Amino acid sequence: MVDIGRLTPADRADWQVLFEGYNTFYERTLAPELFDRAWTAFQADTRMHALGAKVDGKLVGITHFLVHASTTAPDVCYLQDLFTAPEARGRGVARALIAAVTEWARDHECSRVYWSTHQDNTTARRLYDKVALNRGFILYQISL
């Protein structure tokens, strides 16, 4: 059974391990102050939000998301990060986290939830193709 809920101060160390795993997957290294900044924002739960997935009381998955305005619809929810511990994959953790963010967004009157992933992330894309519609957009970025 997967239990989804807000992250609590007791989850801080396990959250950071998972978030480090997420960033390693995308070949990024974050400065310690960015972990602290994100954690503080998640605890405030105003601008940025986070949920955790626990199996047998152990944090095994995380998701981070935020709401922003849209020019063509009511506010939208961007699911920015999603990561499941390797030992918990294939057990419905990511699906449960996506469902929880979707429910949260519906409760907050968002018009949609969306996210992006790398084109080579075939494992995650198998799930994403089952729970959401790939509208074919390509993401461009300018780093500052």
TrEMBL record:
Look up the domain of life of the source. Bacteria
One MF term in GO for this entry?
A: acyltransferase activity, transferring groups other than amino-acyl groups
Question: What is the name listed in the Swiss-Prot or TrEMBL entry for this protein?
Answer: GNAT family N-acetyltransferase
InterPro entries, alphabetized: Acyl_CoA_acyltransferase, Bact_Acetyltransf, GNAT_dom
The record ties this protein, via PROSITE patterns, to: GNAT
Q: SUPFAM superfamilies, per this entry?
A: Acyl-CoA N-acyltransferases (Nat)
Q: Give the signal peptide as a residue range, or say none if absent.
A: none
* Keyword field contains Methyltransferase: no
Q: Is Transferase included in the keywords of this UniProt record?
A: yes
Q: Which UniProt keywords apply?
A: Acyltransferase, Transferase
Domain named N-acetyltransferase: which ranges?
A: 2-144
**Gene source species:** Embleya scabrispora
